[in-house]
Amino acid sequence: MDIGLLGQYLANGVMLGTMYALVAVGFTLFFGVLDVIKFSHGDVLMIGAFTGFTTYLGIVAIGIENPWVALVAVLVVSIATTAALGALIARYLVLPLKSAPPLNILLITLMLGTALREGVRLFYPDGSNPKAFPALLPTASLELGSFSLRADSVILVSAGIAVIIGLNLLINRTRLGLAIRAVAQDEETAKIMGINYTMIVLVTFAIGSGAAAFAGIMNGLYYNEVNFGMGLLLGLIGFSAAIIGGLGNIYGAILGGFLFAGLQTVGAVALPFASAYKDVFAFGVVIALMAWKPTGLIAERSSDRV
Amino acid sequence: MKDDVMKTPIPVSLPPLATGLIAVAACAIFGWLFLLAESEVAVLGLVLLAVLAGWGAQKTGLSATLGTAMHQHSGAMNGAIVASLLAVIALLGTEHFPLLMLSTMLLYLVAALGLNVQFGLTGMVNFAGAAFFGIGAYTSAVLTTHTAVPPLLILLAGGLIAALIGALLIVPVVRTAGHYSAVVTIAFGVLFKTFLEVNEVLGGPQGLMVGSMNVFGWDFNNGPVLMGHEMSFYVNYALLSSGLAILAFALTRRLERSWLGLALDSVRLDETASACFGINVVRAKVLAFTYGNILAGIAGALYGMMISFIAPNSFTFSDSLLMVSIVLLGGLGSLWGSALAAVIVVLVPEKLQILQEYRFLLFSVLVIAMLLFRPQGLLPRGVRSYFPGGRAQR
Amino acid sequence: MSSIKIENLYTAYDKADVLMDVSLAVEPGRITCLLGSNGAGKSTLIRSILGLTPPRAGRITVDGKDITGAPTHKVIGDGIACIPEGRRMFPKMTVSENLRLGAYQVRDEALIRERMERVFETFPRLAERRDQLAGTMSGGEQAMVSIGRGLMAGPRILLIDEPSLGLSPLYVKENFRIIESIRETGITVFLVEQNVRQTLAISDYGYVLSGGHLVAQGSAEDLRNDKEVYAAYFG
Amino acid sequence: MTRTASRRTVLAAALTAALSISLTTPALAKETVKLGFIGPLTGGVSNMGLGGRNSAELAVDLRNKDENAKYAYELVPLDDECKPNVGVQVATKLATNRDVAGAVTHYCSAVAMGTVDIYHKFNLPIIVWGAVLPDITYGNEYAEVHRVNGTMINQNEVAADFMVAQGYKSWAIIHDTTDYGKGHNTYFTKFLTEKGGKILGTFGVTSDQQDFTAELTKIKELNPDVVYFAGLTPLAVRIRQQMDKLGIEAEFQGVSGMKSDAYFAGLSGDLAEGTVTFLEGAPAAKLPGGAYFMSEYDKAGFGENYEAYGPFAFAAMNLLIDAVEKVGPDRKAVTKYLADVKDHESITGPISFDDHGQNTVALITKYVAQDGKWVVWEDSEYASGKRQLKHK
């Protein structure tokens, strides 16, 4: 295999890994503050993508043509809507079930995911078919032999990594982040410190969901297509990535995301059996990894959250 | 499908046993009507009735009386429940479809009981229930088409193979806990389905035919003739599924109330403490995991024969979720809860067929509502009680 | 100078009452202690004041302001701070971050820095270890962090829950000395303890809680000398 | 009231728990005959199922408006979720309902394979409207089972012929791992190899896959003339889009499952331009009945498009109704009538069933994407030479 192709695979993998990592970070945040898995995360991502798509249609309808203006509007509206949705989910579905068996939250959010998905499929105009997400980024491409790198991919990956770094700084360097970490480590003591627990939980869910919306838009801009089922597998993979990395640890989520992307790419191109086995391969490795490192690659120590 | 789905206010003065028997009879009649209900009006009416009855039973203390009845007269009550199940099957007699649904429900219950031992007792999550169910079904497909193994043995083989393949997961499942083991089973579920689809040997995405059940020359795909009337061939499957469900129920109950059950409970509550008391945590987990998979495998094997055609699409992650919902909706560790939830999870989406494409939306909203209003499950498990010999009482 | 007044308080977990008809007053500028054995309901009382376990009935006022059942962060906002039982570090945070959290509701960064310096003066050991993770410190050091954290908020009233629990006698003595010095700065202290002798030695007034009921009260000196109470409750 | 409206009513009724809904049509003197429809109404391929359901519904509604119809028809639509076990359930439900005289069933082949036994066992005459696996009709001797659409055999033979004639030499194949995608792959590979085409690589992908860059990068390395895709529209859209991302210049060739307007709705710019695909049956728009179907479908105001197989569902339902009109709502009689169907006019071309109930006039129409529409090849500017398919 020549270097160009290798570079191409690498570029694909990085793109994929960035998206997975963004989703995984959300899982890790929710798990950190509330010890819960919010399984509707993938579908919230889909809602973010559809909100962005609808915003774009609206922008075009009022006659704004500039793609950068459209992009900003799409991002702002979709992240805000999805963040609000995340906070609502936390307030009305997750917090009320805190004292119930933890699996119930998993089930209720799974069901919510189904409801969101079905809702879009049934009530969004022609929702059961894929939608063409506009290409708002410059598409100039750099061709180096068999390696083709497009400007939009570069922008997307950079933006995605910037968001992850930003989230990391937010968690580790700000007063809000301090409160989030405090809640994650010891809810009750955090309250005693005067932290408004409910508010922090809602804000965390809003942040995680906003990140999902960003991932959704990124997905749309990259694949130029969104559909009602896009969140299902992404959610599943994001969850697996968060777990193999080690739950409650942002670095773990990032590691897990890139690892999963790598496994899929390797499974599809570098292994002797048919490429359709790539998911079998990727998930098989996940199982083996869990047997080897039962608490993830970056192990969660006693109460190492966020 | 019993206990709580009670209706008609009964004077509290009746002795618990009488109340209990009337309740069981009422549930049986209700179940029979619900299975037969076709029109949206009838279905809606019955659902409303059940909700009202459940609510009423709580309010009037009827459910407490029922609890007492189950507690004090377990022999009579269990007998009555089995009898009314048989009565419902007999009443349905020639009705193919309701019998098919009833059998499906019972088989899902068997699998859910297995999961309940994993989830509810031992605290091990398993999101690959449908995969183990599927392993059973595929085992029966291969064995009925390619071998002459007696079908009753095939059921056992289904359970055994499910346990064997499950053994591959034992290391990661035992070593991990909580969400980490959730991901192991989720990964396995996805892997299983994808493998079946990609692979050609087991029929690929197309699926496989499954031979019918056959006990000593009695082919289950021919309707039995009873007093000159030909019954639906599904009566065979309904009877066998009932037998399987009753057996699984009794066995699981027995397990729950034995020393072993106590050990599993303590593993769930505190692994470290259990280890301190000399409980072999690893062995307990291996046992619970295997037990659950065997039940799922056996149920799947019979399900495959009944449905007579299987494909990877029938054993997806979302099917595993249905099984998980049965366990959680019923209440973790609650066997009767699983029974009630199996009815809801299997039957309600089917009855919602009248809503066509809207049915899953409504179903998911319903489950969300149920979880919000009854976070501990519909019939939460009572405080455990250990009885030497495992007999009765609750 | 601030005070807490508790009137006819009932608090329950699930359906079982843990506190029954408890009334007491924490006088401004003094150390008021609450004594009682394990399970008497002492910590529940603290939780009730803080709003962690809202009372079922009764009234809690701080300087005349009703805080019954208010959310915890509001109670803290009213000038109350708490040094919780068992110290409760944020184990994966550094000493400075733990201290910083003590002043979570303080917005003035300069003030926070100033207070942190004062804590480091009081506990020079912490100054050396400000970047160490709290979870990796010894029990005694954690106790210092916990007390320091309580002071970071600059409270008017400080609730201290069993500061001697699980500490070596040397540290216990040191802690009580510091608590006594806290009073000197004008902070009202409500001290909950099992350690009768040392507690009464530094307190001004005391209450005795048993089985959820208040069974005795009096000045620290009276309680010290009350043979009956001693025999009945602290045997 | 139209069916769509009544469905909404049912939903509203269920949600508000209002019991008083009236679904009864105004009193008619006619006897009511129930006809079934089964397809995937939920899940990933529900767009196809809903399109089929709407079309079948339209056939029933139109006939009910006809004064000369002997019976009043009522549609019993059921959802098989594209899962064999659910399919067996609903097939049993339908087949054991004595009021149902016949049914138009299944889009998913695996489901149809699982249910044909049931129809045979309970003697319910059915017409398959979308499933393309040959074995559904050819794998058994059941008199009850018929199919109006062609099998994937016909389609791929025409496809291979046509593409080789266009001068293409080498192919890369992507197929989804469902029965649909794998089946198409099998037959296309067979016919293409026979006709001398060269297959450079075959890639299986899962039906919910989003990212194809790994497979496509490998395809880029293989450098084929054509990328053949066997699967449905959503994946086709993603693959075409990502081919462009990676700068793959090959011609894109599809199968019947992507002959949907959603292909254009899903693709930005002119990426769709020049894609070729194949569909069984005559082009609906060209037959007199086809134009009528399209305008009536628009008028009925369904929320979803009729998609590639809607016309088949419409044709199948009409055929079934014709049978009932002729011989009455008796299952045996309907089965017997269907066995002898020869050159029955339909919007997808004439229908003639062979011994296995398979429509033998499996006309295959070639389509090319031109200016955001699927245009019949012979009418296109590509055929006339005004435009060129992609040749490297």
TrEMBL record, chain A:
<dbReference type="GO" id="GO:0015188">
    <property type="term" value="F:L-isoleucine transmembrane transporter activity"/>
</dbReference>
<feature type="transmembrane region" description="Helical">
    <location>
        <begin position="153"/>
        <end position="171"/>
    </location>
</feature>
<keyword id="KW-0029">Amino-acid transport</keyword>
<keyword id="KW-0812">Transmembrane</keyword>
<feature type="transmembrane region" description="Helical">
    <location>
        <begin position="70"/>
        <end position="93"/>
    </location>
</feature>
<dbReference type="GO" id="GO:1903806">
    <property type="term" value="P:L-isoleucine import across plasma membrane"/>
</dbReference>
<keyword id="KW-0813">Transport</keyword>
<dbReference type="GO" id="GO:0005304">
    <property type="term" value="F:L-valine transmembrane transporter activity"/>
</dbReference>
<dbReference type="GO" id="GO:0015192">
    <property type="term" value="F:L-phenylalanine transmembrane transporter activity"/>
</dbReference>
<comment type="similarity">
    <text>Belongs to the binding-protein-dependent transport system permease family. LivHM subfamily.</text>
</comment>
<keyword id="KW-0997">Cell inner membrane</keyword>
<dbReference type="Pfam" id="PF02653">
    <property type="entry name" value="BPD_transp_2"/>
</dbReference>
From TrEMBL, chain B:
<keyword id="KW-1133">Transmembrane helix</keyword>
<protein>
    <submittedName>
        <fullName>High-affinity branched-chain amino acid transport system permease BraE</fullName>
    </submittedName>
</protein>
<feature type="transmembrane region" description="Helical">
    <location>
        <begin position="322"/>
        <end position="348"/>
    </location>
</feature>
<dbReference type="InterPro" id="IPR001851">
    <property type="entry name" value="ABC_transp_permease"/>
</dbReference>
<feature type="transmembrane region" description="Helical">
    <location>
        <begin position="360"/>
        <end position="379"/>
    </location>
</feature>
<keyword id="KW-0472">Membrane</keyword>
<dbReference type="Pfam" id="PF02653">
    <property type="entry name" value="BPD_transp_2"/>
</dbReference>
<feature type="transmembrane region" description="Helical">
    <location>
        <begin position="234"/>
        <end position="252"/>
    </location>
</feature>
<dbReference type="GO" id="GO:0015658">
    <property type="term" value="F:branched-chain amino acid transmembrane transporter activity"/>
</dbReference>
<feature type="transmembrane region" description="Helical">
    <location>
        <begin position="74"/>
        <end position="93"/>
    </location>
</feature>
<feature type="transmembrane region" description="Helical">
    <location>
        <begin position="178"/>
        <end position="196"/>
    </location>
</feature>
<keyword id="KW-1003">Cell membrane</keyword>
TrEMBL record, chain C:
<feature type="domain" description="ABC transporter">
    <location>
        <begin position="4"/>
        <end position="235"/>
    </location>
</feature>
<dbReference type="InterPro" id="IPR003439">
    <property type="entry name" value="ABC_transporter-like_ATP-bd"/>
</dbReference>
<dbReference type="GO" id="GO:0016887">
    <property type="term" value="F:ATP hydrolysis activity"/>
</dbReference>
<keyword id="KW-0029">Amino-acid transport</keyword>
<protein>
    <submittedName>
        <fullName>High-affinity branched-chain amino acid transport ATP-binding protein LivF</fullName>
    </submittedName>
</protein>
<dbReference type="InterPro" id="IPR052156">
    <property type="entry name" value="BCAA_Transport_ATP-bd_LivF"/>
</dbReference>
<keyword id="KW-0547">Nucleotide-binding</keyword>
<keyword id="KW-0067">ATP-binding</keyword>
<dbReference type="GO" id="GO:0015658">
    <property type="term" value="F:branched-chain amino acid transmembrane transporter activity"/>
</dbReference>
<keyword id="KW-0813">Transport</keyword>
<dbReference type="InterPro" id="IPR003593">
    <property type="entry name" value="AAA+_ATPase"/>
</dbReference>
<dbReference type="InterPro" id="IPR027417">
    <property type="entry name" value="P-loop_NTPase"/>
</dbReference>
TrEMBL record, chain D:
<keyword id="KW-0732">Signal</keyword>
<dbReference type="InterPro" id="IPR028081">
    <property type="entry name" value="Leu-bd"/>
</dbReference>
<dbReference type="InterPro" id="IPR028082">
    <property type="entry name" value="Peripla_BP_I"/>
</dbReference>
<feature type="signal peptide">
    <location>
        <begin position="1"/>
        <end position="29"/>
    </location>
</feature>
<feature type="domain" description="Leucine-binding protein">
    <location>
        <begin position="32"/>
        <end position="359"/>
    </location>
</feature>
<keyword id="KW-0813">Transport</keyword>
<dbReference type="Pfam" id="PF13458">
    <property type="entry name" value="Peripla_BP_6"/>
</dbReference>
<protein>
    <submittedName>
        <fullName>Leucine-, isoleucine-, valine-, threonine-, and alanine-binding protein</fullName>
    </submittedName>
</protein>
<dbReference type="InterPro" id="IPR000709">
    <property type="entry name" value="Leu_Ile_Val-bd"/>
</dbReference>
<dbReference type="GO" id="GO:0006865">
    <property type="term" value="P:amino acid transport"/>
</dbReference>
<dbReference type="InterPro" id="IPR006311">
    <property type="entry name" value="TAT_signal"/>
</dbReference>
<comment type="similarity">
    <text>Belongs to the leucine-binding protein family.</text>
</comment>
